Amino acid sequence: MQPGAGKQVAFYAPMKPPHHPVPSGDREIARNLMDLLRSSGADVQLVSDFRSYEKRGEAALQTDLRKAAEAEAARLIREMPAADLWVTYHNYYKAPDLIGPAVARARAIPYVQIESTRAKKRLTGPWAGFAEAAHAAADAAAAIFYFTGQDRFALERDRCGGQIVAPLPPFLPLEDLPAASSLDGPMLTAGMMRAGDKLASYRIIAQTLAHLPGDWRLDIAGDGPARSDVEALMAPFGGRVRFLGQLSREDLSAAYIKSSLFLWPGVNEAFGMVYLEAQAHGLPVAAQNRPGVRDVLLPRPYPDPEDGAAALAAFTAGLLASPALCSGIGREAREYIARNHLAPAAARRFWDIAAPLMETQR
C-alpha cells in the first residue's frame, strides 16, 4: 500500500499559491510538492490561496494582512473539510504562515512545514513582526523539512522542543529520468528575467561570455520584466545569443535535449530547479560554488564567486573543449539525480516522518 493512501492533506503556500499566474521556482516547487503527495495516494487539497507575502517592509500592510489572516483562519476552522495533516510550504519572514498553526490546532491535526527559514537578524527592522510570526509558526510545527544544508543550521539551532528537523532534498516530479541530451548543441541558460538576483546572474553570464574563447553559442530560455536589460547585456554578442522566450515544461525539456551544457551562476538561489532538470537530461553544469546551489550539483569542483567571471569562463571553456569530459559528467549527473532527486526517494523521506505523526495524533 502507498504510504499516503487514504490520507487527507491540507496544503498551503503563504508566499505564492500553486495556481498563481506568474511562473517562478517557488510556484513550481509548490506544484511539485502537491503532486508528490498525491503520487503517494494522498488526497491533497489547496485549502487557501491567501497570500501573506509583504515585500516592502510596511507595518500598516503587515497589520492588514494579519487581520485578513485571522478571518481566513476562522473560515477554515469552520469550513475546511476533514484533514489528517496540514502541510505549509515556504514559511519565512516576508511570508509567514499566519493561518496554519491556528487551524491545525483547532482541528487537532499534525502541522508540518517544508522549507521554513529562521532569520534572527530580521527580528528587528521593518519585518520584525512578520519575522516573529514566522518563528512562531516554525515553533508550532511537529516537523520541519529542509531542502538544503544552508537552512539546516538555523532550524536545528532554534528547534522547538521535540520538533523533528529532517532533510527533504529538492526533487523533480518524475518517476524516471527524462531523455538524455545529445550534447552537441548550443549552451543553454534558463531563468526568469527580473531585477535583483536573476538579473545579477545574467550580468555574470554576459561577463563570462566576454571572456569565453572559441565559436560558442548560447540559447536563453525565459522572460520577464527585465528582458530589455538582459537583451542589452547580450547585445555585444550578436547572433551567437538566441532568446527562446518563456517555454512550457515540454519545450524546455526539448531545449535541454538539444544543448551541450547548462550555464547559470546561481546568484542567491535557494538551490534552483533548473539545475536538477539540466542534470537529469545529462547536461554538465557551469555554475559558481554557492550555498544552496552546491547542494543540488553533482559533487565536483566549481569556480568560487569571488574569483569572478573569468574563472567561470575558464571552467566553461574547459567543458566546451572536451566532449568526452562532458559525456562522462553527463552520465554521472544523471545517476546522481536518479539516486537523490526524483519523486520516489522524496516521497519515502516525507512519509517516513509524517506518517508516524498522524498515528500519534489519533
UniProtKB/TrEMBL annotation:
Pfam families: Glyco_trans_1_4. SUPFAM superfamilies: UDP-Glycosyltransferase/glycogen phosphorylase. InterPro entries: Glycosyltransferase_grp1 (IPR050194). This is Glycosyltransferase family 4 protein. It comes from Leisingera aquaemixtae.
